[in-house]
Amino acid sequence: xxxxxxxxxxxxxxxxxxxxxxxxxxxxxxxxxxxxxxxxxxxxxxxxxxxxxxxxxxxxxxxxxxxxxxxxxxxxxxxxxxxxxxxxxxxxxxxxxxxxxxxxxxxxxxxxxxxxxxxxxxxxxxxxxxxxxxxxxxxxxxxxxxxxxxxxxxxxxxxxxxxxxxxxxxxxxxxxxx
Length: 178
Hints:
- By secondary structure, the chain is mostly helical.
- 78% of the residues lie in helices and 0% in strands.
- Helix 6 runs antiparallel to helix 7.
């Protein structure tokens, strides 16, 4: 795939989604479903790779670009990731001066709600592929409960989930859902 086309497709995802993983459904539709240059497995790997390292959530776009077109694709992904941030500077300047205006408040609230919906849409396919056995389902359920009911830092939840998953795998406790 041409690096310019890849940039434009990734940019479409990053510009239309106002939070890191909210761009996932747009990118999945473009690169997996429409152009067939990426698999769902590669998309999930890109998310896992970048969620396992420090940095912004939307950094997975760089990994997606790399999976599609190597180093030129990674550069296209990086450019697609930073372009919205550069475009938002004048927007922040404007909204900062007009933050109390009812229309500006309504627009910002709509953006927040749209982002929440896109994040949910992104989480469903990831969960479908990740929840393959009863251990992962249990980890997901307990993690969700902890996130909703406590103020435990997510780092500890991720670390605990990794330890439980590794232990279950080492003990052969993994039982696939049928």
